[in-house]
Amino acid sequence: MITVGLNAYILLSVVLFAIGFFGVLVRKNTLIVYLSLELMLVASTLALVAFSRYNGTMDGNVFVFFILTVAAAEVAVGLAIIVALFRKRMTVQLDELNALKN
Amino acid sequence: MTPVPQALLILLLPLASAAIIALFLRRHGGLATMVSVTAAAALAGLSLGLIFGGERFETSMEWMSLGGLTISLGFKFDDLAALMLFVVSFVGFFIHLFSTGYMHDDQARARYFGGLSIFMFSMLGIVFADNLFMMFIFWELVGFSSYLLINHYHEKQTAADASKKAFIANRVGDFGFLLGIILCFWTYGTVNLSELGALADSGQLAYSRLIPLLLFCGAVGKSAQMPLQVWLPDAMEGPTPVSALIHAATMVAAGIFMLCRIEVLMVAETLNIIMWVGTATALYAALCAIVQSDIKKVLAYSTLSQLGYMVAAFGLGSTMVDHDGDGVLIAAGVGAAMFHLTTHAFFKALLFLGSGSVIHGCHHEQDIFKMGGLRKKMPITFLTFTIGVLAIIGLPGLAGFFSKDAILLLAYQNNLPVFAILVFTAVLTAFYMVRMWKLVFFGSTRSDHAAKSHESGFSMTLPLIVLAILAIAGGWPDVYGKLAGSVAGLVPHSEAAHLTILLTSVAVLVIGSLGAWAFYKTDGSDSLEVASSGAFNGLTTLKESFDGLYGFYVAKVQQRFAMLLNFLEQIFLAGLIIRGFAGFVGLLGLGARALHVGSLHAYVYWFLLGVVMLWALTSGLF
After folding, report:
1. Which pLDDT score, from 0 to 100, does residue B322 have?
2. From A1, B118, B213, B299, which residue has the greatest number of CB atoms within 10 Å?
3. Contact flag A101-B605 (C-beta cutoff 8 Å)
């Protein structure tokens, strides 16, 4: 059986996090930015699971359960906000959402 | 019922009544009257049971503990408290009853009766208090309820001013009282009255001159002694039953009661001061009373004068004592002061209610020069008022005679100058009381109001009759002995000096009253002003000198100081500190506003920058 080391998981987690972060930085569509944010969140949970496995304790796994639960609720709220935003402004492009500035 | 819950019920009944009136009955004058009078009647009945049930007890419960300071609430019900409880609940009930008639047509009856109830609660708290902190709490509460009730006719500017004056003058005294309590706790480690008494009995009390003097400040404010006497005459702006209850019978007597409570702390020097303050007040107020034309103001100055008597009696009974000797003479002061307090409560409440009946009958005319001839029109009021007058000027056999004699005896034994002043004051008392009595009830009617006057209703005459009986019998040794228990045993007696005192007081009575009877004509002008305008103006100036002095102090000295403080405040606090801080924060805001560019991506970059900085910081790069 091929065993995958901790470093590989951490690396994957970092890569996923970086992809998510650059997604947030460069994409203009709110939905995509939101997806990228979720990706960053999941990347961090992956690291937690890996650590948990490596240490042989359940701490990390427990964290993941909580994070996923909260994330599910947060996604529901966040998507609802985006839908409401779209209904109001007819756009979800970030460049056009700058009402607070003016 | 066991005594402690009974005492608790007595204390809480008027509070419940006040709460019900304030919360639900503010628009229902009739119902509020009923609630308040019922509560007063119930508590009077319960009090009689408690007083004559013979149980004396003491109990206490911790209220809050702040470090070393424990404040407790408790009841100390001894003979002294029982006597005071009788005065407050019994006289209080009849004044409630009188009010139902007197205030019947008032628009704000509910507020008035709510005020009476809250006052009864506060006053009973002072009576029951077993420590000085608890007494102070209720002390302030009576001040508050007195403020409410003086201010009853608040649409009148004079009434509003009078209530504020009373409140502020009391604050001055109470400041000293509070300092005294704190110092007492600091020095002795307790403010519980019984514990202080036990300390004194075991000889462990380090006597201090300052503590009793500071505590006496509270009595100076509440009992309107010099130099804080200015508020009491003005307090007559309140409804007349309030003047009878608060400013004659109970609240102003609370100062005397408090002195008797802290008697164990007294030292000779302090007592000397107390004695002279009381004597000066007695004389000053009696002089002022001669030139008053308002029936209630005459009574107000007379109250001041009699309170001065009580304070002087307290001081006198103890001046000769050092604490190594026996404590008999101290107690003599307490005995005489409480005796006079009790009889004074009866006859002065009677006189005030009588004047209330007169004012009510004369359609709110208060000027005695516009009354006259009311003897025929108001026979019951006349008869009872006469008894009140005879009691206060000390006709032998009536209540005032016995108690005034006890005080004169103390003065005769201890301090002859004070004796001379008090005797002279007694002459003046007879003089101004007979003057008022003659002007109000004799001669011909001198105004339309007086001509159309009528006798008051039953609810007002009944209290007069009951109080008249007490004003006659309240001083008889049998009656007073029943009421006061062991406190009655403290009243000084002397077989040797008895005849001297008796002759003196009869002579005083005759000179004063015959003088006034012969001197004053019932022709609508002040005979003294006609005969000697110099003397009249002199007395008027004397009366106004204190008000003038305080007016000058407040308007000139204090106002200037306030202006100076305001100027400094404008420069330093408002200028440098407040404007300075605001400017600094504004500057920061200006910088922060530049970061706000409106693009989400820019914010993410800021965020990234922040994370990098944080990482650099934690990994020690800076």
Report:
1. 47
2. B299
3. no
Residue partners of B335: CB distance under 8 A and separation at least 6: B317, B406, B487, B488, B489, B490, B491, B492
Q: Count CB-CB contacts under 10 A for residue B397.
A: 13
pLDDT > 90: percent of chain B = 4
Residue with tokens 């460049």: A95
Closest CA to B229 of B278, B160, B290: B278
Q: Which residues, at least 6 apart from B141, have a Cβ–Cβ distance to it below 8 Å?
A: B118, B121, B122, B125
The identity of residue B466, as a single letter, is V
**pLDDT for B594-621, tens place per residue?**
777 777 778 888 888 998 999 999 988 7
Asked if B590 has any chain A CB less than 8 Å from its own CB, the reply is no
Q: Is the pLDDT of residue A89 over 90?
A: no
Would you call A94 and B600 a contact, using CB atoms and an 8 Å cutoff? yes
pLDDT in tens, B307-351: 998 888 888 876 454 444 544 455 777 888 888 888 888 888 888
Interchain pair A97, B605: CB under 8 A: no
ipTM over 0.90 threshold: no
Contacts of B601 in chain A (CB under 8 A): 25-26, 94
Helix, strand, or coil (residue A95): helix
Q: Return the closest-CA partner of residue B403 out of B332, B343, B480.
A: B343
CA separation for the pair B275, B294 (Å, rounded): 30
CA-nearest of B314, B302, B83 to B215 is B314
Given a contact cutoff of 8 angstroms between Cβ atoms, the answer to whether B145 and B122 are in contact is: yes
Which among B463, B240, B249, B466 has a CA at the least distance from the CA of B362?
Answer: B240
Q: Nearest-CA distance from A21 to chain B in Å?
A: 9
Which chain B residues touch A82 with a CB distance below 8 Å? none
Does B596 touch chain A if contact means CB atoms closer than 8 Å?
A: yes
Q: For B409-433, what is the mean pLDDT?
A: 86
For B90: left if phi > 0, alpha if psi spans -120 to 50, otherwise beta; the answer is alpha
